[in-house]
Amino acid sequence: MSAFVTLNNVSKTFDVSAPWLNRVIERKPPSYLQAVSDVSFDIRKGETLALVGESGCGKSTVARLIVGLYQPTKGMITVDGKDMRLVDQTGESSQALRRKVQMIFQDPYASLNPRWRVSDIVAEPIRTHKLLTDNAAIDKRVAELLGYVKLTAKDGEKFPHQFSGGQRQRISIARALASNPEFLICDEPTSALDVSVQAQVLNLMKDLQREMGLTYLFISHNLQVVHHISDRVGVMYLGRIVEIGDKKQVFGDPQHPYTRMLLDAIPDLKMTGKARTPVAGEVPNPLNPPTGCAFNPRCPKKFGPCDKDRPQLIAFKDREVACHAAV
Amino acid sequence: MSKAPVLEVKDIHIEFPTRRGVLKAVDGVSFSIAPGEVLGVVGESGAGKSLTGAAIIGLLEPPGRVASGEILLEGKRIDNLPYEEMRKIRGRQIGAIFQDPLTSLNPLYTVGRQLTETILTHLEMSREQALERAIKLLEEVGIPAARERIEHYPHQFSGGMRQRVVIALALAAEPKVIIADEPTTALDVSIQAQIITLLKRLCRDHGTAVMLVTHDMGVIAETADRVAVMYAGRVAEIGPVSEVIHNPQHPYTMGLMGSIPEFDTHRERLIQIDGAMPRLDSIPQGCAFNPRCTQVFDRCKTERPELLVAGNTRAACWLHAK
């Protein structure tokens, strides 16, 4: 299968300089934060790619770049062969592109308008994209969408505050599905939910993918959830992908020391009472990243070239890995 | 258990009077913690686990109130103490660690000032001694260059380091009990492991009893000695950690364990508990879990089960009635 979503050397830099007057008076240079650096990957149609990493590693920025909420500083993103820069323009083809790509956000308390009824929330994409114009047909479609996420048509008359966190997240999914998208970007969709509710949402997302042939980009910091839902996994550290490949390869036989470290840090229900291996150190300040491999100050396998040359992503053992020690 | 419990909670009820009647948020919870023991309390949001913790340290937000029941610290009741008395116990005898380290530290004071203030409030010491103790505490919780960092403000620390400061604060007066309410939830997995290891080591070294409130079974599995599973304001199951995890007796615990994705099991679907926890104003008659339970029978809908001996744990479920 060919790639449905392609990222080609995508970088995003944010200007985090002090205000102009402060810079002049205090003689501070402008400062830039490189949130995402040279990220490239493909997502095939119908597959789930997951991005994992600690907070601040740039995974949410990648999500926002793909959906077009940010524009990349460098590089190109295409979805179904169309340049994602189109979303900022008007015209029929950009409208069609926006319809195809939808997003589910982390916090279901913040991502639904509290003053709108659920039926209006779910109908909004239908109205915006003029998929249906007749009100009766819209109502019918909304009822169908609520049915997909195991809610009833009557729930459409209620307001978001009348629902629990899990139900709200299902409303978000119904809204995302309203425009018949082909590609869903899910930014930590279950992080705000309890485990039992998380299981409901994950099962639902898997069912919907199978029935509708959806493609997912799944962002999460929870490795067990990622292992459950994804086909392929990309591990990010300080704005770069350090290891990417099939989930069985990456989780079963991690090659990058950071991936191994993350896996070791997972609490294991089977080993009751046994301490997990704590990860040494913390993520460095992205304003002042270490030279060479960004992971070198925390890496147990650090040697000669690690703090001088930045390792490139190289195909190795059925996956790609950026590490001097592994390759 | 041979040692006398340091903290005992006996049949505690927490209520919220509202215009539409009294809501029972915690409905008859009992447990005890021995010195040096870690009791995990798990449950979904709204199960009443944080409220129970807040009641123990006497920080229930009005109009919430302890309607009945007793809380005993080393055999003495503390739930009916006047505010000033309770203030002396809080921090001195019972320490607290909360979820968000940024909101539990004062952003306007240096870390050192907050620590010495806590130490001086509770212990007889000179300012210099207090400062030395503060530095020692920071070293103990693993903050590098403690002598310099004591002059820093909370915003100059990272999330994990901030949580270490909060732990140092909780330990400042050598309390007998620590209530840790979701201490690792706001942290990344890698930092989480560091904090858990630290908390465990400190409790062992100081013989502190810990009530660890969390929704993360993984954290419970490696930290706690015993675990109480809460559902809709009641304890559904309580017992040794390994028993509850590997051999759960209450249908709710079974569902909860099955809904956690794991690495070595390749299930296509996770076990899910249908429905959601009932709202406080519509807790069903009988067992609160009965509308979601897969093994429900007639008795569950009418009579409320007490904790019954079930295998090596105790579970509030009629399946275990003799």
Provide structural commentary.
- The complex is a heterodimer of chains A (327) and B (322).
- Chain A has 327 residues and is of the alpha/beta class.
- Chain A has two domains: 43-246, P-loop containing nucleotide triphosphate hydrolases (Rossmann fold); 253-267 and 291-327, no CATH class.
- Chain A is built from ten helices and twelve strands.
- Chain A has helices at residues 20-26, 59-67, 92-100, 118-128, 135-148, 165-177, 195-212, 223-229, 247-252, 257-264, and strands spanning 3-15, 32-44, 48-52, 74-79, 82-83, 101-104, 183-187, 215-219, 232-237, 240-246, 314-316, 319-321.
- An eight-stranded mixed sheet of chain A has the order 6-7-8-3-9-10-12-11, with helices on both faces. Chain A has a four-stranded antiparallel sheet with strand order 2-1-4-5, with helices on one face.
- Chain A is globular.
- The two termini of chain A are 28 Å apart.
- Chain B is of the alpha/beta class.
- Chain B has a domain at 7-84 and 214-320: Rossmann fold, CATH 3.40.50.
- Chain B has eleven helices and twelve strands.
- Chain B has helices at residues 49-56, 83-89, 111-122, 127-140, 146-149, 159-171, 189-206, 217-223, 241-246, 251-258, 298-302, and strands at residues 7-18, 21-33, 38-42, 65-73, 76-77, 94-97, 177-181, 209-213, 226-231, 234-240, 308-310, 313-315.
- The chains are: A alpha/beta (327), B alpha/beta (322).
